[in-house]
Amino acid sequence: MRALLFPGQGSQTVGMVKNLYKQQHVKDLFEAANNILNFDLSDVIFNGPTEKLTLTQYAQPALLTASMAILNCYLAEQQKNIAEICAYVAGHSLGEYSALVAAKALTFEDAIQLVYTRGCAMQDAVPIGKGSMAAIIGLTIEDIESCLPNDGSCVIANDNSNGQVVISGLNESMEFVMEALKIKGAKRCISLAVSAPFHSPFMQKAAEVMKDALSKTIINDPIVPVISNVLAQPITTKEEIEKCLVDQICGRVRWRESILTLESLGVSDFNEVGPGSVLTGLGKRIIKDANHSILELNT
């Protein structure tokens, strides 16, 4: 059994999917994105600069568009629909929107507008320089939780894989926690190049913005089950989708548990649909004896 996995922010690179742009349906996808966003997304993706593409409000629609370009090319090659090629879909953080488009729960046009709104709202929720995120290597999630403050000023944002957890919070608290984690035995504490403490309680303003935006969006029941980031379980109704997308803004990305859930449901083939191979690497650390690979195109 197979699952398709869609990466989140951090996988973007200047020039991604440029080799697919000659295909008309990929051009149509980019044109639709450009028209909705009122700026030239293709120029940002293909020409950068990296500093601009890395900004949350550009990175999020760029990754959604890139993942959908790859998926649409694959479906065209195979002459099949999504339900014929996989049993489940899942996406890491932003990638959950890509998964929902793949599962026909959201249209690409609505998703592009949503992720742009999401990116702007997340960027605006906390003043630049006040919060940060860091990847903690070499400790269990239980070890990390034991070092977190009780006031919520630093929390676990992403449970990515065995021995890789991301924390998020206010800068002063983050520094204190990272020192405690080094004493605890962390191999590395890597500060991430982000401008806000994503997936933390400090994103509440962004969650409110997304609740309003999603309430005005047509959401359909997915044609294949989607593994929710915040539940690490399949969701199959539009009501569940709307709630989980709001909860995801402040909630933990339970990626390790999501992959284990897919394994328990019978999935043995995990294919990453998007630029890079971040999720493939994480998957190999979570389940060593499964098939983790990047979706291959003939193009």
Write the layout of secondary structure elements.
Blueprint: E1 2-6, H1 24-37, H2 41-47, H3 50-54, H4 56-78, H5 82-85, E2 88-91, H6 95-102, H7 108-125, E3 131-137, H8 141-145, E4 154-161, E5 164-170, H9 171-184, E6 188-191, H10 204-215, E7 226-227, E8 234-235, H11 238-250, H12 255-264, E9 269-272, H13 278-286, E10 291-294
Parallel strand pairs: 1-2, 1-9, 2-7, 9-10
Antiparallel strand pairs: 3-5, 3-6, 4-5, 7-8
Helix pairs in contact: 1-4, 1-7, 4-6, 4-7, 7-10, 10-11
What does the largest sheet look like? Answer: 6 strands, mixed
**Beta fraction of the residues?**
15-25%
Sequence of secondary-structure elements: EHHHHHEHHEHEEHEHEEHHEHE
Helix content: 40-55%
What's the mean pLDDT score?
A: 95
Round the Cα radius of gyration to an integer and report it.
18 Å
Number of helices: 13
CATH architecture identity of the largest domain:
3-Layer(aba) Sandwich
